[in-house]
Design brief:
alpha/beta; Rossmann fold; Hypothetical Protein Tm841, Chain: A,domain 3; 2 domains; six-stranded mixed β-sheet; four-stranded parallel β-sheet; 11 helices; 42% helix; globular
Length: 281
């Protein structure tokens, strides 16, 4: 069995290669310019380009097309693998899941296709792909893998803050009125994933308080259970280190990743986004 995911999920490249996880790129647009995330544009190139954006070329994303998924599926089938599990970013945030379904229908009868809506993105989706790939390599059945993914989805905690509301507003994540008010008051919104959607979970005045609030919220959800943790950031590596140091003293960390968010995620949250993912083992 092969695991496929879209590039809105975060798995370190070397780990994806080790576990044979195929990643379908998300389409990135800067005005009339288009790039494939992770292929034609990495994080460094993205942040360099954001320094010169205007209203006319403000970055946007477009989900992978059915054709893009179909091409990856055909390549996997040509390698002799006939069972594929695709784990996508939340269906409520993107049309990616629909594209994966359409591609699987196009290849009906040529292989066995399973699809799973992570109801997440970034490292939460990434950890699901990692777990599925490890289980597949260990010879676990699709039923066992899907049961584990459902449990991870039910128990995951994803909480984060954003540094500027500009990207979230233009990406449709918060209203422009909330953006104006928050900017005037210098408020740092706390956001969380809930049932596949990004919802507001609080507001604080400073970045330091935001980090503490994120850790407290995640700790309340997962308690003292051993957890896989990811410290996710959008070009905010130094603050991610601070978040990691503080989180380790509170959470029962069994595995951890420091993740510079995929471009497809950073576009919708903006440079400076910072958060914590925790999933019980």
């Amino acid at each position: 069995m092969r695991i496929v995911m879209d590039d809105a999920g975060d798995v370190p490249a070397e780990l994806a290669q080790e576990l044979n996880i195929r990643v379908v790129p998300v389409n990135i647009m800067f005005g009339t310019e288009q790039f494939l995330s992770g292929v034609e544009m990495d994080q460094a190139a993205f942040y360099a380009k954001t320094a010169e954006v205007t209203a006319e070329n403000f970055p946007k994303t477009s989900q992978p097309t059915p054709y893009q998924f179909e091409q990856v599926y055909r390549e996997i089938l040509a390698e002799g693998e006939n069972e594929i599990l695709t784990i996508t970013v939340s269906e409520k945030l993107s049309g990616t899941y629909a594209s994966a379904i359409a591609a699987a229908r196009e290849l009906e009868g040529q292989g066995t296709f399973h699809l799973f809506d992570s109801q997440a993105g970034s490292a939460a989706q990434g950890y699901m792909a990692i777990e599925a790939a490890r289980m597949a390599q260990a010879g676990e059945s699709i039923d066992a893998i899907m049961a584990r993914l459902h449990k991870m989805r039910e128990e995951m905690a994803v909480v984060f803050t954003i540094d500027s509301l500009e990207y979230a507003v233009k990406g449709g994540r918060v209203s422009s009125m909330k953006s104006v008010m928050a900017s005037l008051l210098n408020i740092k919104p706390i956001l969380r994933l809930e049932d596949g959607l990004i919802v507001e979970a609080g507001r604080v005045r400073t970045r330091k308080k935001a980090i503490g609030h994120i850790i407290d919220m995640v700790a309340t959800e997962v308690g003292n259970k051993p957890v896989r943790v990811a410290y996710i950031h959008a070009n905010a590596a130094d603050e991610a280190k601070i978040l990691a140091e503080r989180a380790r003293s509170v959470l029962n960390v069994s595995e951890e990743l420091v993740v510079d968010m995929a471009v497809a995620v950073a576009i919708n949250l903006g440079p400076g986004a910072l958060g914590l993912v925790a999933i019980p083992v």
